[in-house]
Design goal:
seven-stranded parallel sheet; Rossmann fold
């Protein structure tokens, strides 16, 4: 197959590019070329801004693709742009949406592809929903060959998956663990969450490419393993060989007192604070044999080891560190004040 990946070098898409490049497929990626050195030599690169439609068409010419996969589409106008660019040029268009689009809390904590899409907390998720609606309308009305994919919290060796961090990534949280400082865990840490290693995701994703069962359908691709946030943070602490000092704070309180740029209303209240367990039966029917094999403690261990071995990724975040200390201090002060009234 001839496959075009829009993006192709990100957290999720890099694993897809890598696995496709190791197969007999002809792989193209379209992006701005900022990570060209990481792309395998047999992958054909189209260096362009996807919003420059004339330049994209100039470079791809009349090339026909078996699949075009959009990893960096976030707005309905971007989905509409892709329809203009690739109608009649591809047998399948795969749009990467998000499991955050599901209504939470849903009527059932078991999430399937038929779970209602709604998120009053997070504009990012509402934009993904709007993209899905536009693309499915194009499929129904004009036979545009769309497939929707909804990943959840997918990670790689470059990203230690935690529930709360500042604008500079998760290093500051790990540094607090290493220093024996308390680490904020949203809620009481008992809600269930699903982490998926990017190489596992890629295998399920590739199984949908060129698959006639995938046209006009939506699929979620996740691990079957669900852990509590307490367990996830413990995996990180164990990988660091330190004792975890958990400090629990209500998610709605964190969202109310966090700097606006942390977007905890969306990230927490609209997604990570709610227990979800994903049922991937539909994917497994379409891609027989699919199984996510990387357990969370293994993947988190790899990500922690990678971060520790790459000092350039250890970016301090003093603002987030100070905010954590203020939140903890304020809650302790409130406890002490109320204790005096008992």
């Amino acid at each position: 197959m001839r496959i075009l990946l829009i993006g192709g070098t990100g957290n999720i898409s890099s694993a897809v590019t890598r696995q496709l490049a190791e197969s007999e497929n002809e792989v193209w990626i379209l992006n701005r070329g900022t990570r060209r050195a990481e792309v395998a030599g047999q992958v054909r690169q189209v260096i362009a801004d996807i919003d420059d439609e004339e330049e994209v068409l100039r470079q791809i010419g009349d090339t026909q693709f078996d699949a075009v996969c959009e990893f960096i589409g976030f707005l309905p106008e971007q989905a509409a742009r892709d329809v203009r660019l690739f109608r009649g040029r591809t047998r399948q268009y795969v749009f990467i949406s998000s499991a955050s689009a599901y209504n939470k809390p849903a009527a059932s904590h078991i999430i399937t592809e038929s779970t209602t899409l709604a998120n009053p907390y997070w504009q990012y998720s509402r934009n993904k929903i709007a993209c899905e609606e536009l693309l499915m309308r194009e499929y129904r009305d004009r036979a545009f060959p769309v497939t929707i994919v909804r990943p959840s919290h997918t990670y790689s060796e470059r990203f230690v998956p935690l529930g709360l961090h500042g604008l500079k990534g998760n290093w500051q949280v790990l540094k607090r663990m290493l220093n024996g400082q308390p680490v904020i865990i949203p809620g009481d840490g008992s809600s269930l969450w699903t982490l998926t290693w990017n190489e596992d995701f890629a295998r399920g994703f590739i199984g949908l490419l060129g698959n006639p069962k995938a046209i006009g359908e939506a699929f979620q691709i996740m691990s079957d393993e669900s852990l509590t946030w307490n367990q996830i943070y413990q995996c990180a602490a164990s990988a660091l060989h330190v004792e975890l000092q958990p400090y629990h704070v209500a998610s709605d309180f964190l969202a109310a007192v966090a700097p606006r740029e942390y977007d905890l209303t969306g990230n927490l209240l609209g997604d990570k604070s709610v227990s979800v367990v994903f049922d991937c039966t539909k994917l497994k029917r379409a891609v027989p044999g699919f199984q996510a094999t990387t357990r969370a403690h293994e993947g988190i261990g790899r990500a922690v080891a990678y971060l520790l071995s790459h000092p350039e990724l250890q970016v301090d975040d003093p603002d987030f560190d100070a905010w954590c200390d203020r939140v903890i201090a304020s809650q302790e002060q409130a406890k002490a004040a109320l204790a005096k009234l008992v």
